[in-house]
Write a structure and sequence with these properties.
The protein is of the alpha/beta class. The chain is built from 8 helices and 9 strands. The protein has one domain.
């Protein structure tokens, strides 16, 4: 199957979503692909549009997201504006993203991966800030995304237009039940601790890697002082 061109002018590769032109898409003033809250559109309609786009990328994930229903043990997930006006997510009372500037926070999370990295694993979909930040990189050829939390993705899909992200041909959703951690990787740290059971092993591996990296950064100045003493 060859490539085509969607209505939004982006190439469509096999298994990619068809981007539909819509008056409620991300405003022209926003940086490319940065997610925005959608006003004036019923959440059911927005969810259906996002599910249709998601189905072209990962039909199984779209089906599971459509069928997911909260029960007594499910977290309360809400999407609301941060101080910057961009969406942030609350998982019960825990902020998944910054309550002030989630895009600036995402830039810091992305900075731990070299700018020239051609392929990166992203742990956690969240509201899409980290994914949009990574996709700004010209050197990036592929972004493998593990959503981590179905309740969070469901809430976000009912409040944020995800089609610009899903239409980027470099974004690939990882559909394996428990994928292995690959490097380099970026992560939405709170989602590592709130991951669905099927992603618990992956989350533990990522947390261990981040902890080791943090200890190395702390010990580096001490070792440097010893060498110059």
């Amino acid at each position: 199957m060859g490539t085509g061109v969607g209505l939004c002018g982006r190439p469509i590769l096999p298994g990619r979503a068809l981007c539909l032109s819509d008056q409620h898409m991300v405003s022209a003033e926003a940086p490319p692909l940065v997610p925005r809250l959608v006003e004036g559109v019923p959440s059911e309609r927005l969810l259906a549009a996002n599910l249709a786009a998601l189905a072209a990328c990962d039909a199984d994930l779209a089906r599971r997201l459509a069928q997911w229903r909260p029960d007594a043990s499910s977290p309360k997930v809400t999407v609301r504006p941060a101080a910057s006006g961009l969406p942030t997510v609350l998982y019960n009372r825990l902020h998944i993203h910054s309550a002030y500037d989630p895009v600036a926070e995402a830039a810091l999370q992305a900075a731990r991966v070299p700018a020239e990295a051609p392929r990166v694993m992203a742990l956690g979909f969240g509201a899409g800030h980290l994914l949009a930040t990574m996709l700004l990189r010209e050197a990036l050829q592929r972004l493998d995304v593990v959503p981590l939390s179905l309740p969070v993705l469901r809430a976000v899909a009912a409040a944020v237009d995800l089609r610009p992200l899903l239409c980027d041909p470099r974004l690939r959703l990882v559909s394996e039940e428990c994928p292995a951690l690959s490097t380099p990787f970026v992560a939405v740290p709170p989602l590592l601790r709130l991951a669905d059971p099927g992603c618990s092993e992956l989350s533990r591996a990522a947390l261990a890697a981040l902890s080791l990296e943090a200890r190395a950064m702390v010990s580096a100045p001490t070792e440097s002082r010893r060498q110059h003493a």
